[in-house]
Design goal:
With about 1450 residues, this protein is an alpha/beta fold. The longest helix has about 35 residues, at about 1350-1385. Residues about 1-10, about 25-50, about 450-470, about 1230-1255, about 1385-1390 and about 1395-1465 have low confidence and may be disordered.
């Protein structure tokens, strides 16, 4: 009976399908007991020898491309008709809310829940580019074909009985809806190709070449379609896959990109290249067009290509499947036309049907099996490693299943699993001649369970292998390794132990040497949840080489003893270790053996000490202002891996050094940075976890034979370290050190270990160094397991990355990784642990770490917090700031600001159109007692952003600040009231170009970083005048702000003026927050780099020009994140903004009066040892200075008054009132006074009238200041006494404050002259009586003259002179060239030669000759013969090469003959 008669009777057909499945299940259930019975049942179940295929679906209904709704209906129909074959489901939704429908096809068995055990899963996806539609319809035809022909086509029945096939016809339904049938190329702006957000989904997947942080950051902007596919792929153990495209006809296989990132034409092959080529050939060879390889103006050999060799593609789905899962995927291009007409569908189905069926059958090649424990329970996430393919192990499923596609051959296969002993390798011969993969099961035995004991008590018995005295299993040579030798050594290790090592480079040095790192772990290559990360860094100073050699030896020791030594095996199985052998390979190359204390090779090739080049919590100087490439590489590496513990190996002393390495004032104290041979006794600066750090230092010191004795080195005999440990700052200050950066910035606990007194010891000393340090090195690594660890998950089981983990109220935090796992080192005992994550309620618990095991596991489940609850606790319950956040338009911003003034008129003023500034800038001013004098208040400005593209986010945060302050005032919050009483807060939410930027966002709300030219920051830095820019600069200058905050994006960094200790401390206070989030690791782009550089330039500009300390707070990676994320940005940064506003709570105030109790309005205050100068207010002469806590010396000065210095101690959150500071006036005399001559008869000096005056011993001192018209001090001005004339030249120069003092000035009338660079000189007469004359002030005008001419006239004159000089120079050059050209031409002189023969002509002349040619000989010219040949004779070296040699030679050629008419015929 043909199928057409069965089709109307759906119930009968369903019955037949069920009957066939039942027969197949019986066949499978008996196959294990009797192969003959299985064969008989299989034959009974098979259809006739020549089955009739049902392909009526091709023409009925007429062929067309199904819409998303029609796909849903089709899948629903197939599920209803064939419930035991088909299952419809959705993997997610698109940007526009369309469902992404999928269909699962397999024969299910109701009587056996494990009937599908070891049944491989295959997936077919299409239409990831919405306008590439042919593949979409091909997989739909395949779904209908398989279901309709299951009963009567044996091939289909075998396929569905043994394979689970998932079909996703459209990865991009939104794009398909926009595409146009018949368009062979993409529409303008790629409409239809991309999704509704304008994103190419085949560039949106995690990429194998990206680090984990980049992948995590990209996940925040990942498209919903991509996220749905990723979750789908990760949730099912797919073995094989194909992704169908259009625009070419070829089968492409991974990889799609390469490490070199070339655009094309360079293959990037996977370890499984043979499998992928087999898959590609299988499809292409069964396709009549593809196998030819010449289609669509492209040529592909045999119709296949490597993706990267075709063109480079990053973030593709094909590579994601292979790199991140067990799935092998091809990208198959089906047609030259992306969206062909529906009329071509029957033809295309005929071309692709056989290829599709053959490709699906490849899921059954290679090997498969189960991995179980000794009790028969499946082992999840075990690894199957095949010899020759170690770089791509397969992972088992929850049921212990694995599938490994292999080409024919003989392989050794091994099973590995955490907590189990590795299996013995099994040799297997793969032929792929069977209908199913070869079955190969493994049973693993558990390792010793007592892993958590005291590592110090581990005792190793070495009975399996003989050892030498150095505890190595193979002969080991102790020698120093230069870079080439080191590379060879570690490459040999990596090649010898590939299963437990991974060699990789984190960057390059200045001279382009790789910074090699070796990873040692049971399964290297990726972070494993629950396994701590550890690192050693050596050779940071190139001439300190012991650490480098110790790490090389330790690497060899651990690799050799893995699997032999119980302790080493356990360490490698449970710890992921990273060894950076040489951080400064360039310095090593110029160092020399035998160096004990020198600095030769210490620095890198740029002559920078790398251990002074890291960002420091206390400041910036010339040593860390510019980051060296080695330091940048180490910082990026450290931030990319969740390291828990670290050590930096040095030489030159013998001590374990722990943080902190410097004190807060060490940047201004160069003496503190010197290592002086005195007792260690500087100020200690411990961390909050000082006891833990001391314990870690003691672990190393006490395990070392001599370090714990604390004996000094010969060169520093007074350096005594009790117990062999020391706090870094107490020893000597290291500013910009790596140790502190690890702890403060990366959250890694790091020690600096000094391994010996000699920096570069002799080779024969290395064995002793190894014996002394081997055990300490191992014990220190083991400390990474001590403390509390676990996972942080949500209530639905989702891992929470970036959760903050703190102990005992300490602000130093650790963070959970991408898998939610965390490690927090701690000493045994009771602790209070706090775990906080954005969007979740805080978790707090008291824990106790046992004394015996030193560690405990704590898995935490966080509950989603109520935004209103968080708002009540942190934001005065302002719901608008955290619920349904969005970007507001310019009219909405102005309306809100006006509402603020209307509702809170007593503290708020909306500055709109009240002045010229208000016309261009919308602002609101918040302060108590509006309208009252503001002289006694600090002025604070919060500007949304200096970048128009960041301003939409920045102004939303600015508006949140306004609402926060207003609500705090409304509920009478004490902190808010105090702030408003002490300060005037200006808020400027800029509105420039918002409409343009918001249109970009609406077109693609995942754009992240909109780009716009000529932003406000660019205009601010430009010298060209522009109205809005000038108004803002005038506003900043007139208001004299004490503090300023603005917002940026691209990182979470806080940018501020560098090099000023006070501002460095402010920055530290702002960033210090209980709810600190992990630092953002944002991908670097050119635009972000430009914005960062512009922000730094603008920060320095405002500080130098207007004395405004500007702080720029990085809010997020994206300049314009999606609107719903504004709440998260606000929650993450609110505490930093609060800290900024609280800066005004600490400082000093006072007023400056003269001795008559009058305000000195020109007074100024300078912090001694600091750059900043503070002016008093213009009315009451009040000074109010915001200062962080500490001790300061203030110099208070005023023109014409004696300066005074006051020492003050500023305490946190208090204002120190100095009251009235009184300055006494100088005795200032001006004008021409009567001259009082000194008595006596000796001619000492001549007065102004020319009279002789005697010189006595009576002299005086005269002092004062030299200022410019703007009252700024003039440095290096020369002040001299020009009259009366004395035997000595009396003069002096001004200092940085413009002050001068001249001693030995004669009494009476004198004349002072002042000269200063770029200023007009002046002079004045002063009457000197006795003692000292103080306060003689000179004010100089800027000299606009150059060489006595006005500057403009000089420029014009100089330009003319330069032009004339250039013209004259040009003419001279031309004249010389012309003259030389003439000199180069030879001048020949012609003359008559004597005639020796018979005359040719006769005439009446005396000589019988007729002169045919007039002789050119001039008077005085010598007559010489002319010869055709020129023979050059010897000449002196001074002769010119072109001189002509006229020496006569009779044999030198023919004469010029004069004709004689007598010889005429």
């Amino acid at each position: 009976m043909c199928m057409k008669t069965l089709m109307p009777a759906h119930g009968i057909y369903a019955f037949l399908v069920g009957f066939a499945i039942t027969c197949a299940s019986i066949q499978l259930s008996h196959s294990a007991d009797a192969n003959t019975t299985s064969a008989g049942l299989s034959a009974a179940a098979n259809a006739p020898a020549s089955p009739v295929e049902d392909e009526t679906f091709i023409h009925h209904p007429p062929p067309h491309f199904l819409s998303n709704g029609e796909i849903s209906a089709l899948f629903g129909k197939l599920q209803d008709l064939y419930p035991q074959l088909a299952t419809k489901y959705s993997i997610g939704k698109t940007v526009k809310g369309r469902e992404m429908y999928a269909l699962a096809l397999t024969a299910r068995y109701n009587d056996d829940k494990n009937g599908d055990l070891l049944r491989p899963m295959v997936k077919l996806t299409a239409n990831i580019h919405g306008d590439e539609a042919l593949g979409r319809q091909m997989v739909l035809f395949l779904a209908e074909y398989l279901t309709l022909n299951y009963v009567n086509v044996p091939e289909v029945q075998r396929l569905l009985n043994n394979t689970e096939i998932h079909i996703l016809p459209s990865c991009n339904p939104d794009g398909f809806a926009e595409a146009k049938e018949g368009n062979c190329e993409s529409l303008p702006n790629y409409v239809g190709r991309t999704n509704a957000a304008g994103v190419d989904l085949n560039r949106d997947f995690p990429d194998r070449l990206e680090n984990q942080q980049t992948i995590q950051l990209r996940s925040h902007t990942r498209q919903p379609e991509t996220a749905a596919i990723i979750n789908w792929v990760l949730s099912k153990p797919f073995v094989l896959s194909a992704n169908f495209h259009g625009g070419a006809i070829v089968a492409s296989y991974p990889y799609d990109n390469s490490i070199a990132h070339r655009e094309c034409c360079e293959e990037s092959l996977t370890p499984d290249d043979r499998i992928f080529k087999l898959m590609a050939h299988t499809y292409a060879n069964n396709h009549p067009i593809m196998r030819k390889g010449h289609n669509c103006n492209d040529t592909f050999t045999d119709g296949i290509t490597n993706g990267a060799n075709w063109y480079e593609l990053n973030g593709g789905m094909q590579d994601f499947n292979y790199a991140f899962t067990n799935c092998f995927e091809l990208t198959i291009e089906l047609s030259c036309c992306k969206f062909p007409t529906a009329a071509s569908l029957p033809t295309e189905w005929a071309r692709n049907k056989r290829s599709l069926l053959q490709l699906l059958q490849l899921a059954h090649i290679g090997i498969k099996g189960l991995i179980t424990d000794a009790s028969g329970y499946p082992i999840n996430d075990a690894s199957i490693v095949v010899s020759g393919l170690e770089d791509k192990p397969m992972r088992t499923t929850q049921r212990g299943e694995y599938w490994r596609l292999l080409t024919p051959g003989i392989y050794n296969v091994q099973a590995l699993a955490f907590g189990y002993q590795p299996s013995e390798p099994k040799q297997v011969h793969v032929t792929n001649e069977n209908s199913e993969a070869l079955r190969l099961d493994f049973t693993l035995s558990p390792l010793e369970t007592n892993y958590d004991g005291n590592f110090r008590k581990v005792k190793v018995e070495r009975s399996k292998a003989s050892t030498n005295d150095d505890d190595f299993l193979t002969p080991t040579k102790f020698e120093h390794h230069n870079f080439t030798a080191m590379e060879k050594f570690i490459r040999n290790i990596a090649e010898s132990y590939p299963s437990i090592t991974r060699l990789y480079s984190i960057g390059q040095s200045v001279q382009h040497r790789d910074l090699w790192v070796m990873e040692i772990f049971a399964t290297p290559g990726q972070h494993i949840p629950g396994v701590p990360e550890f690192k050693y860094v050596a050779n940071m100073h190139g001439n300190e080489v012991v650490g480098k050699e110790m790490l090389l030896l330790l690497t060899k020791y651990m690799c050799e003893r893995y699997g032999v030594d119980e302790r080493i095996t356990k360490l490698v199985n449970t710890t992921r270790m990273h060894f950076l052998y040489s951080m400064n390979p360039d310095g090593y190359e110029i160092s020399h053996e035998g160096d004990k204390t020198s600095g030769n090779g210490r620095e890198n090739a740029n002559h920078i000490d790398l251990n002074r080049n890291f960002p420091d919590q206390y400041g910036t100087d010339k040593y860390n202002a510019v980051t060296e490439p080695e330091v940048a590489a180490v910082m990026n590496w450290t931030l990319s891996i969740p390291f828990v513990l670290s050590a930096n190996l040095h030489g030159g002393s013998l001590v374990a050094n722990y943080p902190y390495d410097d004190n807060e004032n060490d940047f201004s104290d160069p003496i503190a940075r010197l290592r002086i041979a005195t007792n260690v006794g500087r100020k200690i600066n411990p961390t909050e976890e000082n006891d833990l750090f001391k314990h870690l230092a003691l672990v190393y010191s006490e395990a070392h034979p001599s370090m714990h004795l604390g004996n000094p080195c010969p060169s520093f005999k007074h350096e005594i370290f009790p117990q062999g440990i020391v706090n870094g700052a107490q020893w000597y200050s290291v500013t910009g050190g790596m140790q502190d950066w690890n702890y403060v910035r990366a959250g890694v606990l790091e020690l600096t270990l000094e391994l010996g007194c000699d920096k570069f010891p002799m080779t024969d000393e290395l064995p002793k160094y190894w014996h002394d340090n081997r055990e300490p090195l191992l014990k220190f690594i083991e400390q990474v397991h001590y403390g509390v660890h676990g996972t942080v998950r949500s209530s639905i089981g989702t891992a929470i990355a970036g959760a903050v983990v703190m102990l005992d109220g300490a602000k130093h935090a650790s963070f959970s990784g991408v898998y939610g796992d965390y490690w927090k080192l701690a000493l045994p005992g009771r602790h209070n642990i706090t775990i906080i994550a954005d969007g979740f309620a805080p978790y707090r618990e008291e824990i106790e770490i046992p004394e015996d095991t030193h560690e405990m596991r704590l898995d935490v489940i966080l509950m989603r917090d109520d935004p209103q609850h968080w708002s009540s606790a942190n934001d005065f319950r302002i719901i608008e700031n955290v619920v349904k956040t969005r970007y507001h338009s310019n009219p909405e911003i102005r309306q809100r600001l006006a509402e603020f003034e209307t509702r809170h008129g007593q503290i708020a003023t909306f500055g709109y159109a009240e002045s010229e500034f208000g016309i261009y800038y919308n602002s609101i001013k918040l302060t108590s007692d509006i309208g009252e004098p503001e002289e006694s208040k600090y002025k604070i400005l919060i500007l949304s952003s200096f970048f128009d593209t960041t301003s939409p986010l920045g102004r939303e945060i600015t508006m949140n600040v306004a609402r926060h302050v207003l609500e705090g005032y409304k509920i009478r919050d004490t902190g808010t009231l105090n702030m408003l009483q002490r300060s005037v807060l200006y808020l400027l939410p800029l509105t420039d170009n918002f409409e343009v930027i918001f249109k970009m966002y609406n077109r693609n709300n995942s754009i992240c970083d909109p780009e716009l030219g000529n932003e406000l920051a660019d205009r601010m830095l430009s010298p060209e005048s522009e109205k809005k820019r000038d108004l803002l600069l005038q506003f900043l200058e007139s208001e004299r702000f004490d503090l300023m905050l603005t917002f940026t994006a691209g990182s979470s960094e806080l940018i501020y003026p560098k090099g000023e200790p006070v501002i460095e401390k402010f920055a530290h206070i702002i960033k210090d927050s209980e709810f600190n989030a992990p630092p953002l690791q944002c991908p670097t782009t050119s635009t972000r780099s430009l914005h960062h550089a512009a922000t730094e330039r603008l920060t320095n500009l405002l500080y130098k020009m207007y004395n405004i300390p500007l702080f720029s707070l990085g809010l997020s990676c994206c300049r314009m994140p999606v609107q719903s994320n504004i709440a998260s940005v606000w929650r993450t940064n609110i505490n930093k903004i609060k800290n900024f506003l609280r800066l005004i709570e600490t400082g000093i105030v006072g007023v400056v009066h003269n001795d008559k109790s009058e305000p000195l309005r020109e007074a100024f205050i300078r912090l001694i040892d600091h750059k900043h100068v503070y002016n008093v207010t213009r009315n009451a002469a009040r000074f109010q200075i915001i200062l962080p806590a500490g001790e300061y010396a203030l110099e208070i000065s005023a023109s014409g008054y004696e300066s005074t210095v006051k020492r003050v101690t500023v305490t946190p959150h208090q204002i120190n009132n100095l009251g009235v500071v009184q300055l006494n006036a100088y005795a200032l005399l001006t004008g021409v006074s009567e001259i009082h001559r000194l008595g006596g008869g000796d001619s000492g000096y001549i007065d102004n009238t020319g009279s002789a005056t005697s010189l006595t011993a009576q002299t005086a001192t005269i002092s004062g200041f030299v200022l410019d018209i703007g009252n700024h001090p003039v440095k290096h001005a020369k002040v001299s006494v020009i009259a009366p004339h004395t035997r000595e030249y009396l003069r002096n120069f001004t200092d940085s404050l413009g002050a001068y003092s001249i001693r030995g000035v004669p009494l009476g009338e004198i004349t002072l002259k002042v000269e200063a660079p770029r200023h007009e000189g002046t002079q004045r007469a002063v009457h000197v009586e006795s003692g000292a004359v103080r306060g003689v002030i000179f004010r100089l005008k800027v000299d606009e003259h150059v060489w006595g001419m006005p500057r403009l006239l000089f420029i014009l004159f100089a330009s003319i002179v330069i032009i004339v000089a250039m013209i004259l120079f040009f003419l001279c050059v031309q004249f010389l060239l012309a003259r030389r050209h003439r000199a180069d031409k030879r001048y020949y002189s012609f003359s008559l030669l004597p005639q020796k023969g018979k005359e040719l002509f006769e005439d009446d002349g005396e000589d019988g000759e007729t002169e045919l040619f007039r002789s050119p000989i001039k008077n005085g010219m010598s007559i010489q013969p002319y010869f055709d040949e020129h023979i050059e004779h010897g000449r002196s070296d001074d002769d010119d090469d072109d001189d002509f040699d006229n020496d006569f030679n009779e044999d030198s050629g023919e004469d010029i003959v004069m004709l004689d008419k007598r010889n005429q015929l």
